[in-house]
Amino acid sequence: MKVKEQVLLILKSNKGKFVSGEEIANSLFVSRNAIWKAINSLRSDGFTVDAVQNKGYMLTSDGNMSDNTEYCKLRILQQLKKNASCAEITVKKTVTSTNTLLRAEAEKGAAHKTVLIANEQTQGRGRHSKSFFSPADSGIYISILLRPDFNANDAYLITTGAAVAVVRAIKEVCGISADIKWVNDIMLDGKKICGILTEAVTDFESGCLQYAVVGIGINISRPKGGFPAEIADIASSLYSDEVADTDIKCSLAAEILNNFFEIYEHTSQSKLINEYKKYSAVLGKRIKVTVGEQFYFATAVDIDSKARLIVKDDSGKTHTLSSAEVSISQYSKQ
Known about the structure:
Elements: H1 3-13, H2 21-28, H3 32-44, E1 48-52, E2 56-61, H4 69-79, E3 88-92, H5 98-107, E4 114-118, E5 139-146, H6 156-174, E6 179-181, E7 185-188, E8 191-203, E9 208-219, H7 246-266, H8 269-278, E10 286-291, E11 294-303, E12 309-313, E13 318-321, E14 325-328
Parallel strand pairs: 3-4
Antiparallel strand pairs: 1-2, 4-5, 5-9, 6-7, 7-8, 8-9, 10-11, 10-14, 11-12, 12-13
Helix pairs in contact: 1-3, 2-3, 4-7, 6-7, 6-8
């Protein structure tokens, strides 16, 4: 760990208090001059550090993730538990798309549990080639590379596990209870706060996955200027104020990884599906089902063992959906 990072951790743990340069230097076994250089480097990174003679240094502003990606990586690594601790993590200020970049790394042989995290995406992607609004500083965007040892038919477990991991992490870090709208949207008060996109490459001879990349994008706080008009009615964020600071982002990222890898490696399929159903935003609700250009209204009655949504339409016919767009209907049955 660099001296600068160690100094930052000391100042963070004593936020609101002055810590003498001598005390910091002695604890790190470096010179006072090294501490002075580290402080100046932190200031260059966007952190506000006050210095008062005979008192020392005090951190008064944390900067943000875009200012110090290495610090963000360090904070995430510190919070990882055993299942996630061997993940190879890279944190970037701005990328085109975390999924696109990580798929390229997968083709080059990147290892299982390679993780790419960004503060901003300029070409964020959702399902069906839709764009995913990914502005700087208001959210966090995570992609995870997996090299699964199971059949491609079981790939739904990746998306399902990611959705449960996100809901758990939001509750653990923020104390907020979110829901899952089948199949991959995380909802709060009826609006989308997180999207999940899983992309995979299959070995057609064996039927197994060569690799899969699961992307997770979370709106933590309302972006400056608000959401674009085309999604303003359906998108939201965990918080309405601008609170997407580095610590919240890092803690959320770490807990998502902790929960995801715990689910991926240790949770049975039946237990995962039961938890997924517990968080469902659609079960028991009247919904609109869109398949291609066609749609119909139905009631969501169950989610089966393969995470397929079972619905009963207005004629009483039951449908088992592997893929479709669903939305909670605003219209009562006539």
